[in-house]
Amino acid sequence: MKKAGRLIHGPHHQRTTHPLVWFAAIICTVIAVAVIIAGIAVFVGYMIIHPRVPFVTVTSAHLETFQYTVAGLLDTEITIVVRAENDNTKAHAMFSDTSFILSFQGLNIARLVAYPFEVKKNSSVDFHYLVQSSPIPLSPELMDQVDISLKRDKIIFNLKGNLRARWRVGPLGSVKFWGHLNCQLKFHPSNGTYIRSPCSSRAK
């Protein structure tokens, strides 16, 4: 005769979580909540302040002189007005490292610079540059291109450079931004008038 076996349960042991695990979980939760709150604060601050990147733009120019000799020496004089603009209504902007190179057919004519300066909120500052070149020797090929440009009554210069803008965005802190300018300045050599075209470091 078979005997029925009995299933005997041993003492039940309940597993407990180590305090360090709870501590780590609490720390992670606090960090996650802080990140979410910071993100909300940045978003709300951005929507309220509406920060705008300061920029520079060429507002006007005039070709005062453009002539070259039979020997192929070019003399030119140009007036250029560069405007630094700050469209932020709640923050001043600081500009520094402002430097532009004016060139013609790959030949550097002048370097336009400005010492660090401030533009008040929702305001602008104009810089008037009078560029007077030294006699620039032209190769026969460049002389031919200049002749063609004069016949078409259209001379093109290149203006290229950089600037650094810094402004405070309310409680969000200070923001720095590098601006880049790379455009053509076109003139009618017959009367020196500037042919307007976009020339700005504003982000497109």
List keywords for this structure.
single chain; 204 residues; alpha+beta; 6-stranded antiparallel beta sheet; 4-stranded antiparallel beta sheet; 2 helices; 10 strands; elongated; disordered N terminus
Description:
With 204 residues, the protein is of the alpha+beta class. Helices cover 22% and strands 47% of the residues. It has 2 helices and 10 strands. The chain has helices at residues 19-49, 140-152, and strands at 55-68, 73-86, 93-104, 107-114, 117-119, 123-132, 136-137, 155-168, 174-188, 193-195. Strands 3, 4, 5, 8, 9 and 10 form a 6-stranded antiparallel beta sheet that branches. Strands 1, 2, 6 and 7 form a 4-stranded antiparallel beta sheet that branches. β1 (55-68) and β2 form a beta hairpin. The longest helix has 31 residues, at 19-49. The protein is elongated and about 100 Å long. Residues 1-5 have low confidence and may be disordered.
Radius of gyration: 33 Å
Report how far apart the termini are: 96 Å
Mean pLDDT: 82
Biggest beta sheet summary: 6 strands, antiparallel
Number of strands: 10
**Helix segment count?**
2
Low-confidence stretches: 1-5
For this structure, the quaternary state is: single chain
How big a fraction of the residues is strand? over 45%
Helix content: 10-25%
Judged by helices, strands and strand pairing, the structural class is alpha+beta
Topology:
Elements: H1 19-49, E1 55-68, E2 73-86, E3 93-104, E4 107-114, E5 117-119, E6 123-132, E7 136-137, H2 140-152, E8 155-168, E9 174-188, E10 193-195
Antiparallel strand pairs: 1-2, 2-6, 2-7, 3-4, 3-5, 3-8, 8-9, 9-10
